[in-house]
Amino acid sequence: MATWAGALTTKTAAAVAAGTLVVVGATGAGVWWVNRGTPVTVVQRSTTATVGAGGQQAAAAACLPHESALGGGYTVTGTGFATSSQFLGASAWAVVAYNPADAPATLTTYVLCVNAKVEKQPGLDFTWRAHAFKDRGNKVLGTPGTEPIRDLTTDGPYVEAVGDPLGDPHCGNAYTMVGSEFRAGRIIAARPVQPVPLDSLIPNGAVPGSTWAAPWRVSVNPGTALSSEPFPMPRSEDILRKTRILDPQPPQSNFAVGARPVCVKLKDASVVTAKVTVAAGGRADSTLTCPKGHSVVGGGFSYPAANERGALEAPQRYFGDGYLFATADAPAAGEPSGTKVKAWHVTGVNQQKPGAFYHDSAWIEHSDRETSTGNGYFDTHPHSGDDQPLRTSGIPASQEMVTAAVCAKIDAEPTEPAGGAVPPAVTRVDVPPLDVVAPPAATPSPSTSAPGASPSPSPSGSASPSTTPRTPNSPGASAPATPSRPGNTPRTSAPPSAPTRPTVTIDAPGGGAGLRRGCQESFAGTALAHPGEQLITDPQRTSWQIQGPNGAVTLGAGASGRFTVPLLPDGTYPLVFTATDPASGLTGSARVSVRIVGCVR
Fold this sequence. Notes:
Blueprint: H1 10-18, E1 42-51, E2 56-62, E3 68-77, E4 81-88, E5 92-98, E6 105-114, E7 128-131, E8 176-186, E9 198-203, E10 216-220, E11 231-233, E12 255-264, E13 267-279, E14 283-288, E15 295-302, E16 324-326, E17 339-340, E18 344-350, E19 361-365, E20 374-379, E21 388-391, E22 398-409, E23 500-508, E24 514-516, E25 520-530, E26 534-535, E27 542-548, E28 551-556, E29 560-564, E30 571-580, E31 587-597
């Protein structure tokens, strides 16, 4: 994905450096200035933007010139979640939010500011990665006398991503980790990507069984989907561990984030935690306060799930079960900009469907209850009336959420605002939103930056790097686009052309041609991706279907082939050839009318 932060204009960068509070794409945006007294105080400065239905929006908030930024957070009111949350320069915080719903949402970006000079650890980058694609940690790849399980985790495109599902950013011994930046990316460069939210961004010390000195944990809501295709199962033991991964994976599983720790030299640091129960389909609030004499300097949240660590029988949260995430990783929503931070506030959202089954429930196809053998498959429901449930797990009525706040003493002299005129206000800044490929939406898919590259052109093609002074070791410094799958050659950024749907034609059979029911017939088509006029021939990106009276019937895949004509009554039916551009995720199709007649053998 493109590094959107590199597309700031010179005017914007200067304004942020000067301490203006920047609002992106919001009506009535403005600048707030607050003068603090002599005590060392942590305040939040915020700005709000509207995230349109099905789209994304970026918003940035900045500290005043005499303040130091400790980190930041966000709140999404309505449906949606953050895909990136990171420093913008040394004294501002920027967030990109994605809204998958059909109604607008509101993004509030916060930056935590202290009126003192604090020391941050230099030399850090987005080198810790967390992937939406996950596989079961104790998966059984085969049993004696049976075919070994072969899927994306053994010899497919995700084989190198299996062992890298969690990010564990951490700081040097002299520094306290008060939070973590994260930046959206993709695992496999050539595949479509669609965001999913984080389900964990928390100190490991807040998680039972770990210690405060351990790294933080950054985890993405799983995007992996299990195959619902039956497979032979002579024995039913360990069926849940005989996981089969669907190929091709949905674009959600290709989503990932790179994490960079926020490390500050502080005294007497500690973490306070709380647990709340979030009902399925509901939300719950958690507010944490620090001991007297300690300031809130950061915080996080987590939805713990031991089953994702390889538990034997517990269901794993695969994508499709609903989002589990916290919309607020910031001070309390609704507080005016410049308010003293007295507590850390998290609003947890659980979009599971109460009463439904998990997508990794196991079923036996056409078997008897006596032996429980036959063909097994993973799904939320049986495929036919005589299928038997073997291991079905219902989504629980609630989910526990752990929240944490980092508390510390800031041992520094307070700083005062400089005299002179207030810098001019910047009321609107067009920071390009993060690129997302969500088929079939028409969204560009620009290349990622090469390692060590300077700020790259924006997704919209404007190459206007920020003039805010940055060094490779400073917060907000330009970094490689991460994460990428090991072995992938990073692509250099280039201003992409606006994507268009593939041009698709059906070469055979012709319109009005007769197809013999139950017999194999020849099919051929052409699909061209734009720009570049590249042929789309990958069977995973193409499909042939006949629109029958009870819905679409899939014949096969590929640009050409011989497929069996379905057993439909005599008549005329639409034949549809569909192709998806692997770069942009856009889909095109062509159709002709064909006649189905009796098969002459």
